[in-house]
Amino acid sequence: MSLVAEMNVSEGGRGQARERLLLAASDLFCRHGINATGVDAVVTAAGTAKTTLYKAFGSKEGLVEAVLEREGELWRQWFVDEVDAIPGDASNKLVDLFDVLKRWFCEENFFGCPFINAIGEHDKNDDRLRDIALRHKGIVLDKIRELARQARPADPEGLTHELALLIDGAIVAALLTRDPSVADHARNAAARILMK
C-alpha cells in the first residue's frame, strides 16, 4: 500500500506540485519499481514539468529519497497507532500486530515494503538508500523493543529481533504470494516465541 497516495493534497502552487510529484512517484515506484519508472512517467502522472521535479528534488534520486522518507513516516505512524490500539498487554500486542499487517496485505495497493524493494533494485554497495531504510527499521524496532521489554524482560533484544524477522518475512512472503494469510502463520510463530 502506498500510504503517500492516501494523503490529501493541499491547495496551492509550488507546494501542491511537490505533493503531486510525491504522490505520483510513490504510486509508480511502488507499483512498477524505481528503475522501471522514468522521470517522464512521474511528471506526466503528476501533471507537472520536469523542471518542477528538478527544482523540488534536484534529481530522480532526490525524489526517490523523499518518497522513501515520506512513505516511512506515514507507514510508521499508521503502524504505531494501530499497534497501540490493540487491547491487552504487551504480549498480546506483539502477537496481534500481525493482524495489523494482514489488513495491510489485503489492501489493493499493497506492493510490499518500499524500503526492501528499493534496496533490492539498487547497487548493493551504495549505502544511501540502505541508510534511509535502516533509519526506518530502527524506529520500527524501537516500538517493538518497547513492547518486548514488557513481554520478555529477561531478553527484550532477542525478542525484538525475532519478531522483526517475522515481520520482514511476512511482508516479503505476502508480496511474493499475494496471500495475506501468511500473516496468520507469522502470528502463530510469534505466539510460540512469546510462550518461551
Q: Can you walk me through this structure?
A:
The chain has 196 residues and is mainly α. It has nine helices and no strands. Helix 1 (13-32) packs across helix 2 (39-46) and helix 5 runs antiparallel to helix 9. It is elongated. The chain starts with 12 loop residues before the first helix and ends with a helix. It comes from Roseibium aggregatum. GO terms for molecular function: DNA binding.
What is the beta-strand fraction? under 5%
Mean pLDDT, all residues: 92
Give the overall shape. Answer: elongated
Give the helix/strand class: mainly alpha
Regions with pLDDT < 50 over 5+ consecutive residues? 1-12
Spatial gap, N to C terminus:
33 Å
Helix proportion range: over 70%
Number of alpha- plus pi-helical segments: 9
Quaternary structure state of the chains depicted: single chain
Largest sheet: none
Number of strands: 0
- Using only CA atoms, what is the Rg? 18 Å
Order of helices and strands: HHHHHHHHH
In short:
74% of the residues lie in helices and 0% in strands. With 196 residues, the chain is mainly α.
Topology:
Layout: H1 13-32, H2 39-46, H3 50-57, H4 60-84, H5 90-105, H6 114-121, H7 127-151, H8 156-177, H9 182-194
Helix pairs in contact: 1-2, 1-4, 3-4, 4-5, 4-7, 5-7, 5-8, 5-9, 6-7, 7-8, 8-9
Tag the structure with descriptive keywords.
elongated; 196 residues; 9 helices; mainly alpha; single chain
